[in-house]
Design a protein that fits this description.
Layout: H1 2-24, E1 33-37, E2 42-45, E3 54-60, E4 67-72, E5 78-80, E6 88-102, E7 107-112, E8 120-123, E9 133-138, E10 143-147, E11 155-159, E12 169-173, E13 177-180, E14 188-198, E15 205-206, E16 213-219, E17 230-236, E18 241-246, E19 254-261, E20 266-272, E21 276-280, E22 287-298, E23 301-304, E24 311-314, E25 319-326, E26 329-336, E27 344-350, E28 358-364, E29 369-372, E30 374-375, E31 378-379, E32 387-396, E33 399-402, E34 407-410
Antiparallel strand pairs: 1-2, 2-5, 3-4, 3-6, 6-7, 6-8, 9-10, 10-13, 11-12, 11-14, 14-15, 14-16, 17-18, 18-21, 19-20, 19-22, 22-23, 22-24, 25-26, 26-29, 27-28, 27-32, 30-31, 32-33, 32-34
């Protein structure tokens, strides 16, 4: 009987000690995470504790000095305001059942129900209102953008829309230079840059709701411009004035025209925003090869597309013709000033200015005149108007390149 009482007594003491230990050991708040941020505020949430009525938020800039910033019955909406933009802070949450006011209601004495949660890093949104987004690079399928460095920002995002929540994010970087890839060739894009701050330990990104800055004219490069899409638009060969133009449909900030001699020496290099160029007192007398390319303004410099293939032009400074009739015979004598860089001259004749030309002869570059007395196998006739075309050619490798424009002489009766 005595032994049985002793066992009961020991069990009762053990139960009492267990309850006392449980009362003294308080669980900590868990699942603390940052859910939102502004330039001067942060919002956090935490786990729910059944014995807790209030959740108290403490904030520190140095993990030494802690300030109570908020308390709420809702563990999913604890806010801290009055913070500095683009900054890192530290927070913890502790649960309490109730509180008493002290010091004329300036401070509270909490009836704690939990231990403090583990300390967590939080971040605020940098103030990027003065940031500028500019294009600094381009390829046929990408654009590189640079956002002005923003105080407090350590994470920059390049997106396709002004709202961060709806933007397709092209790229994100710890530096303000970012590249958007996989874009269309010869296209223009709206680009938006967001200056953010990213927490090193949690990965939370404090981002602005709307873009820090934007660029509505970011461009990819065009491909090689086809030779069919540029060339002569107007010709005044008698006064040595020529107009060249590039067809529309190319997305760019400007163009470069380059004229070279047949030996490759650059004689004229024109970089301009316009698609057309006027050349005066330049073309006549020299055989040129010329090409074009587009460019995109990228910061302080330009990024150029691939050069087009060459087109060719060679015109004599002076071409003349004399028609003579002796009896039943008629001849036309043509002469011209030689074109520097030309390899040969091909002479044609026709009764129509617009077609039907028959080849008379191919002359070497040493020749600069010819006498014509036949059109095909038939002799020239009196009282018939003839048209003589002199085509200038230059040798490139094993092939001959023909001038884009050539001279047509009209004979008199």
């Amino acid at each position: 009987m005595k032994k049985w009482k002793q066992i009961v007594l020991i069990a009762a003491v053990a139960l009492l000690l267990g309850l006392t230990s449980q009362a003294e050991t308080k669980a900590a708040i868990t699942e603390l995470k940052q859910t939102d941020a502004g330039t001067s505020s942060i919002t956090v949430s935490c786990s729910t504790d059944l014995l807790t009525k209030y959740y108290v938020l403490y904030v520190s800039a140095d993990q030494q000095n802690w300030v109570e910033k908020d308390y709420s019955t809702n563990p999913n909406a604890l806010d801290a305001n009055g913070l500095a933009a683009g900054s890192t802070y530290y927070v913890y949450v502790r649960g309490a059942a109730d509180y008493d006011w002290v010091d004329d209601y300036d401070n509270k004495i909490w009836e704690w129900t939990t231990e403090p949660s583990p300390v967590m890093e939080v971040v605020t949104v940098p103030n990027g209102s003065s940031a500028k987004l500019v294009q600094t690079g381009a390829t046929k399928n990408s654009v590189t953008m640079e956002l002005t460095s923003v105080t407090g920002a350590n994470y920059y995002v390049l997106g396709s829309a002004s709202s961060y929540s709806t933007a397709q994010i092209y790229n994100a970087s710890t530096t303000p230079t970012m590249t958007a890839s996989g874009l269309r060739e010869n296209a223009s894009y709206y680009m938006y840059g967001f200056a953010c701050r990213k927490a090193a330990t949690t990965g939370f990104i404090a981002h602005p709701n709307f873009a820090s800055s934007s660029d509505y004219g970011a461009k990819t490069l065009s491909g090689k411009i086809n030779t069919k899409n540029f060339g002569l638009s107007s010709i005044f060969s008698n006064i040595d004035v020529y107009y060249f133009n590039i067809a529309s449909g190319i997305v760019s900030d400007g163009y470069q025209y380059q004229f070279q001699t047949m030996k490759g020496k650059v004689k004229k290099d024109i970089v301009q925003t316009s698609t057309s160029v006027r050349l005066e007192s330049f073309i006549n007398g020299t055989f040129y090869k010329y090409r074009v390319r587009s460019y995109v303004d990228c910061g302080a410099g330009k990024v150029f597309s691939e050069w087009s293939d060459f087109r060719y032009i060679g015109m004599s400074k002076k071409v003349s013709g004399v028609s003579k009739v002796r009896g039943k015979k008629r001849t036309i004598r043509c002469s011209w000033k030689k074109v520097s860089g030309a390899s040969q001259y091909v002479v044609y004749i026709s009764k129509s200015q617009d077609g039907g030309y028959k080849k008379v002869k191919t002359l070497s570059a040493k020749k600069n005149s010819i006498v014509i007395n036949k059109i095909g196998k038939k002799k020239l006739k009196k009282n018939v108007k003839y048209y003589v075309r002199i085509v200038t050619k230059a040798k490139v490798g094993k092939k001959y390149k023909t001038s884009d424009v050539n001279t047509v002489l009209t004979s008199s009766y």
